[in-house]
């Protein structure tokens, strides 16, 4: 069993990840500055340490670990409007501070979250070898994390694996509020009989991947004896769904025949019209295939929220 540090461990993907790894029998430290995540969803057994990934001394005080899963970040493009300099510093300085901690403490592998947003409006399905032109500051910082990791590996031989997640949804996103995935936000809205608001004609597509599949990909990367040096993997279902279809799927499961409201798209630059992963690289390297269907994933959230009602901090519509 391993000791694993999960930065951003009180957040959405982080808390699901920490819980799953503790259930697997690992020793797990969730390190989070609680700027957005709360840690409420963490199960007993996960050790929550409050601290900032830009604080080298706070990381060093954790002592050595076997693996780092680095998820702490300004995790959404609109956050860069709210706090431009702070968000850039968080994602760039935080990333290199975590890499330095890992190198100095003999960490075996660093996994980190990049994003599919860096593909912008590239032709789908999206492949890791496509040229990327990040369309917003959020994805610029994620691209910077990738480039920094590549050079860091070349100079210091630290094993670093980045993941370009598609649109991740699942349990425990309430703290993200208006920054949460649309699956969660549409469920929260429909619970209150609010009609989801879609930009444009609602035919833009997304590849909605459940957080449990993200964790399965982490497990495969942690467990494999293969060495990659530095590499990047897309993680998605390889299926694209329009937002109109998404509203209809969720409405069907919740028993509400709800029609979305269509509004002109307020995002004039960099809005992604189509997202669909080609996940053949991680499939051929590690035999990964996303297995949670949207139907299963949505039902899981709807049923969980009937028993554990928690208000999202905000909603984007
Ligand atoms: N959710 C998605 O669809 C998605 C898609 C692509 C990439 N990602 C990336 O995955 C990672 C996790 O995202 P999430 O959806 O769980 O978001 P999240 O905001 O819930 O998680 C991020 C966590 O990091 C913490 N944090 C922020 N800055 C920190 C700092 N300087 N030091 C310590 N903790 C800090 C926050 O409090 C929060 O708990 C992020 O890097 C995000 O950019 C997410």
From TrEMBL:
It comes from the Bacteria. Belongs to the NAD(P)-dependent epimerase/dehydratase family. Residues 4-236 form the NAD-dependent epimerase/dehydratase domain. SUPFAM superfamilies: NAD(P)-binding Rossmann-fold domains. InterPro entries: Epimerase_deHydtase (IPR001509), NAD(P)-bd_dom_sf (IPR036291). This is NAD-dependent epimerase/dehydratase domain-containing protein. The lineage of its organism: Bacteria, Candidatus Kaiseribacteriota.
